[in-house]
Amino acid sequence: MKNSLYIYPEDISLLDKYPVENVKKEKLISLIFKRKYIQEYSLNEHGKPLCKDKYFNISHSKGRIVFVEDVVPIGIDIEKIRKAEMNLIQYVSSEQERAYIQNEQNFYEVWTNKEALVKAYGTGFIDRIKDVPSLPLNSTREYKGNTYHNQTLIFDDYVLTISRQAKEEFEMEMTKEEIGYV
Fold first, then answer.
1. Average pLDDT across the chain, whole number
2. Residues 165, 120: contact at Cβ < 8 Å?
3. Domain 42-164 is of which CATH architecture?
4. For the whole model, what pTM was predicted?
């Protein structure tokens, strides 16, 4: 591989641990985003990327990559709407959430709300996933002593949720950057 402004030779061996080519490409593009927009960052003990002067997060699913940055802790998750197995729904959902889930879109609304929240908190899933609050959508919730506001969007067969440490709704400014890869 020729030298790149954002990709270093040692990155290639790290990507080899992902056997699926599309996932490998999404991870590579995620790395490019972090280096292009954040430059210097470190990882906490749970693998969350940290920067000294802002908060940011990144997610990818089936060819889409989303990136968010803010002045307060923030998490983002995107998932392509696809078939959800009943055993997965049972495993991740509380009784209230199972009553809400009537189709695959509803399942991914619940899932992305949970994932974005734990990413904003900074740990990922260290608790029982059923115990991470997801409902009601587009609302404020308490998690581990902090208040977060979650907002969910549906577009092009994807569900996107942003969780922001805040007590009120927030405005999102979305920009699109096309990055082609083979």
1. 86
2. yes
3. Alpha-Beta Complex (3.90)
4. 0.82
